[in-house]
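sorry for the late reply, my laptop died twice this morning and i had to redo everyting from scratch. anyway the thing you sent over, i finally got around to it. pasting the sequence first so we're on the same page, its 260 residues, then the predicted structure underneath. double check i copied it right bc i was rushing
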Amino acid sequence: GTVVYDAAPGKLIMDKTNVYDAVVAIKTKDVDPANIAPAFQYGSVDLSNSVFTNNATGLKITSKDDSSNTNSIINTIFLFEDSTINNPVHIELNDVDNLAVLKNSFFGNGEVANEYRGTAIKATNSSLLVAKELNSDLLNMPVDGNDFYNLSSGIESINTDNVAREITITGSYFTKVNESINIDKYATGMIYQNEIDVPQGTEENKTYGISIGSNSAMVVTDNTFTTSNAMPIGVYGVILTDSDSNKMDVYRNNFEGNFT
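ok and here's the structure:
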């Protein structure tokens, strides 16, 4: 028969809202399961001035959308106080190329073991803008952006389709985060003017500020890395794996403390 596509993606707008104790607090839904108009397959989210507490997954956003249907997460607090839930994810992204994460705070639970404290942002095949505000002038973007505390992982970017995505992370503060920024591969963009305090690691379980994998072309500059560990064992500022030195620019960063 004939199928007529007349669905359009919706937008969920939430401001000054408390959401707690959910398995998945917010999830974008497929409005076109027949895949007739894949450019308009999923809805989008604008979240601001809210508090998310004890959600196993805070936001699960899938897009596969054009750049006109944007998502934003602004000035929101993500908390975890329930020690019975392991490895939560505050924001989970899949195929999202139009999200701005601006001036939020992400907390894990300091009462549980480091490896179970969860991840702030887990992005698969997605672009990222993590900053204070939208600004096309990257070199003059305000630097007081997002905060990350007591987490196993701060920002994790996973690439499974070998398509380069742009990642910009600036003005963020990381403390007691085992793996602050972990970029798998195939990334472009900038990581600059962040403050990253790297906790104690071990020879088996290293901790680090920034790790970038192969086939990436990024600029890492003007970041401050600190650590208070007594011995330089398993503690790294920047790790580059299979890096092409002609494509990676790492310069003018400050390292304070006993790094490996």
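DSSP finds no helices and 24 strands in the chain.
thats about all i looked at so far, will dig more tmrw
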